[in-house]
Design a protein that fits this description.
2 domains, 7-stranded mixed sheet, 10 helices, 13 strands, 25% strand
Length: 322
């Protein structure tokens, strides 16, 4: 699943226009997350089939001391920077430990939703009142180019949740190129990667029995109806995930069940759909440890350690900038 964002109408309308005018049609997955999408994604994370969140929690709960050992061994103040902070639920495992041991650090949560950042800052003020928090409202690439946390201190950058998997390989490399530009020699990065595994396990995570993922994806059409004045008949589209075990790409589409036309008032335009024509909406790429090591080397980092859950479903890997 993708990182969160509530974007302005102009960006949304423009991306919908470009996406539905393309062949094949597509809509960026960042638009999943409006108020309804946020609630549905919380439900998805609690599903038994959706192992990703649960497995990363396991890693952070059981191995947070080892994960933080290197940055703490420097015995100096540091920056803890998080790309796509969201609600910070998993990161709080690290924050609580650092607070207990009295570590000298500043937390820089980055998200492109100002609302999400305000909620996170409020919850941290209640739970960890002495924690210095400096939210940054920006995109991954924008924040890495600006480096607002740059203060001469070493940094540990968090990119959790398997978010790098929400990009095709070429685009993932571009994000990691920005990550290289956003770090200096010796900085560390902790990245979450969903690992290749039984293909059925992966498919089940994106096609749960309760149909919550279906509702989550179809909400994208409902959002266009609400915000752009579209007239999508949601019942005439189906949610369809597929997984390719060769390249590790799990792709999700919304498929038109009949030949139909959709009007979008905000664009003053109609879009034709052939029967069973798909709209590509999301990718979630899976990796193996060999691929992760090569990706690190290619991006200007060295893989220092891989922290896995008990079933080796997920990995949080520690890279160092070289």
């Amino acid at each position: 699943m993708s990182a969160k964002k509530n974007l302005d109408l102009g960006s949304f309308a423009q991306d919908v226009l470009i996406g539905l005018s393309s062949k094949p049609k597509s809509i960026p997955s960042k638009y999943f997350y409006d108020a309804t999408g946020d609630k549905l994604f919380q439900q998805i994370m609690a599903m038994p089939e959706y192992y990703l969140t649960r497995k990363e929690f396991e890693i952070l709960e059981n191995q947070h001391k080892s994960i933080l050992k290197k940055i703490l061994s420097k015995n100096e103040p540091f920056n803890l920077v998080e790309l796509g902070a969201g609600d910070g639920l998993k990161t709080k495992i690290l924050l609580r430990y650092l607070d207990v041991i009295g570590a000298d650090f500043t937390y820089f949560p980055i998200d492109f939703s100002g609302t999400v950042l305000e909620e996170l800052k409020g919850s941290l003020a209640e739970e960890l009142p002495n924690l210095p928090v400096k939210p940054i409202e920006d995109t991954y690439r924008g924040s890495l180019l600006k480096r607002e946390w740059e203060n001469g201190k070493p940094s540990l950058i968090l990119f959790l949740g398997g978010n790098i998997g929400n990009f095709p390989l070429k685009e993932a490399r571009d994000v990691l190129d920005h990550l290289r530009l956003g770090t200096v020699f010796g900085d560390e990065v902790l990245l979450g990667f969903d690992l290749k595994k039984n293909p059925q396990t992966i498919l089940d995570a994106y096609h749960d029995k309760e149909g919550i993922t279906r509702e989550f994806n179809l909400n994208l059409l409902k959002r266009m109806n609400r915000e752009l004045g579209a007239n999508f008949d949601v019942e005439e589209f189906m949610h369809w995930p597929s997984y390719n075990p060769v390249n590790g790409e799990c792709r999700s589409h919304l498929v038109s069940l009949k030949k139909q036309k959709v009007d979008i008032t905000a664009l003053n335009q109609a879009f034709e759909f052939e029967a069973f024509e798909p709209i590509f909406i999301e990718i979630s790429k899976k990796y193996n440890l060999g691929e992760i090591k090569k990706l690190a080397r290619r991006s200007g980092f060295e893989l220092k350690e891989a922290f896995l859950d008990g079933e080796s479903f997920f990995a949080d890997v520690l890279w160092e900038r070289v």
